[in-house]
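The records we work with from here on pair a chain with its fold. The integers have meaning only within a learned vocabulary of local backbone shapes. A complete example follows; check for yourself that the lines match position by position.

:::
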Amino acid sequence: MSFIPINRPILGEEEKAAVADVLASGGLTNASYEGGKYVRAFEGKVSSLVGTKHAVAVNSGTAALHSVLMALGVKPGDEVVVPSFTFVATSNVVLASGAKPVFVDTKGDYNMDPKELKKAMTKKTRAVIPVHVFGYPADMDEIREVAGARSVPVIEDAAESMGATYKGTQTGKLSLAGCFSMYASKVVTSGEGGAISTDDDDLADKLRLVRNHGMVRHNDSRHLGFNYRLPEMGAALASVQMDRLGGFLEARVRNARYLTERVASLDGVSFTQHSADRTHVYYLYTLYLKKNRDRILKALNDAKVGAAVYFRIPAHKTELYSRLGYGKKVLKNTEAASKHVLSLPVHPGVSEADAERIAEEFLRAAHEHL
């Protein structure tokens, strides 16, 4: 019986051909302001999907977030409001900018609570970064209203949400800038990679400078920047993956619906990421278990089902942030989620037979431990 991983990249002959084309060309990367052939092709596909004037490719989702903060001039003394129930990259880029992350609690759907955001805003707040957790859009109207009342820009951490929509609009177009990740396990992948979407011409120009040491031409640095360029091989992979996004999402939605029908109505089990006004891309299919989460996790893993727990330690309680004095902050919903959530595999590599097996093993474990 084979192991069913929580996520894995789906790669085929098209990706191999694209990488082979890059290798044959000898142009493995491109340090120009505009980027290379495949970088430009990938950017065009992102901007077309999201519906923004610009997309700027970078070499990770972390680089995407940091680039936006750098372009906005976030600096020491500033504050940036972030959730804690997410990967630490969201708050790490704030520290890297010299600013202070201000952690706020979540709602029952694991996304930033706009009411808690409002409480956290101060005259020092320079930006707000909601995360579309697990590929499910946050309450962007309310978040933009709170931030807009103080003229504070919103930056979407859309790392997990490529293709998701909120009230008919793609994530990445719901704020000043959207930051996507093409990490190996993401909805589309280049192994490592990222992209930033925006309608703001000035911001797009600054982002292209930040990703390339501030240069338009060689050695003419105009803005503080870094080597955040996406290599051509990564862009080639990502460009092909964008063409396959529709099929990937269909498979994820199909598998998630099947599991919802089979397991989400059990006593002690809740699936909370659903609403008629937004679509979920199911980067992760995540259930809230009333009790014995870790026993059920072990039972599934023993049965070779790659169930997993994400954000077992909230960002503000990790060793780094505890050492910096954030660990004592009480975020009730965040900490409850970290103790109770469990994610099941729904990626496009999960077959109908795999989905049935996942459901049966979950039912068996739940019967024993819930």
Remarks:
- DSSP finds 13 helices and 13 strands in the chain.
- Residues 245-263 form the longest helix (19 residues).
- The chain has two domains: 13-243, 245-369.
